[in-house]
Write a structure and sequence with these properties.
The protein is mainly α. The chain has one domain. The chain is about 80% helix and about 0% strand. It is built from 8 helices and no strands. Helix 2 packs parallel to helix 7. The longest helix is centred in the C-terminal third of the chain and has 56 residues. The N and C termini lie far apart (about 60 Å). It is found in: Cell inner membrane; Membrane.
């Protein structure tokens, strides 16, 4: 009859302060990882849709003035329009005021390059925000669960030794319950690792497309090429990317 009471509920009820604290830590890890996975995937999906709409407009625009008016009117809501807005503003700022500060030193092309690199760095930091937490959860949660298992087995064996009964039914139950902590640790770590890998790949694709777009935009801004005079209008190598 005693074995029927064994299980997760019995384990939590009999757990000491250390075991309950470890369970709380794993619960917080799980909530944090699932929040990051869901929120970042939703945000990435929204930004991908906005980016596709902006790139479709960009490659069909007649000139940079039309792009500038669109960005000013609708603001920079995603990485590509953000980059275009700052790049166009940097070119106009340098043409109007020149190199009045050390930050603006060099030619217009140098200033434009620094501005675009800064925007790309900002977007990189933005998309990678929170990934450190997912990586930490994925790498530490199994060890937290393992520590809880070792701690539970130690106390179970001590209790069995004090009772003087070493039969199999007295040993298997408490030791089996202690393994619950390892299972909980793995249940927390696996989604975090999968979510981290998926987000890293998604970010890598986004940043590669943004880098390609930056090269094309830089060429347009430094050479003054009109969009209608380039084959990019029909190819749209970025807007239809992965």
């Amino acid at each position: 009859m005693e074995t029927q009471t064994l299980g997760i509920g019995h384990f939590i009820g009999q757990a000491d302060g250390v075991a309950k604290f470890l369970l709380l830590v794993l619960l917080v890890m799980s909530i944090a990882s699932w929040y990051l996975i869901i929120s970042k995937n939703v945000r990435n999906a929204i930004e991908r849709r906005r980016s596709s709409a902006f790139l479709d407009f960009f490659w069909n625009a007649k000139d940079l003035l039309e792009v500038q008016e669109r960005v000013v009117k609708h603001h920079a809501e995603e990485p590509f329009s953000h980059l275009a807005h700052h790049a166009i503003f940097a070119r106009e700022h340098h043409a109007r005021f020149g190199a009045s500060r050390l930050e603006e030193a060099g030619s217009a092309a140098d200033f434009l390059t620094r501005t675009m690199r800064k925007v790309i760095d900002e977007e990189t930091a933005k998309v990678e925000n929170g990934l450190t937490i997912l990586a930490s959860v994925g790498s530490t949660a199994p060890f937290v669960g393992l520590f809880g298992t070792v701690w539970g087995i130690y106390h179970a064996l001590v209790a069995i030794g004090l009772s003087g009964s070493g039969s199999l039914d007295k040993v298997a139950g408490p030791v089996g319950e202690s393994l619950i902590m390892t299972a909980v640790g793995l249940a927390v770590a696996i989604p975090a690792v999968l979510g981290y890998n998926f987000l890293v790949r998604s970010n890598r694709v986004l940043l590669a497309r943004l880098d390609t777009f930056a090269h094309d935009l830089y060429a347009f801004l430094t050479t003054g090429t009109q969009f209608a005079a380039t084959p990019q209008t029909t190819v749209r190598p970025i807007g239809k990317g992965a």
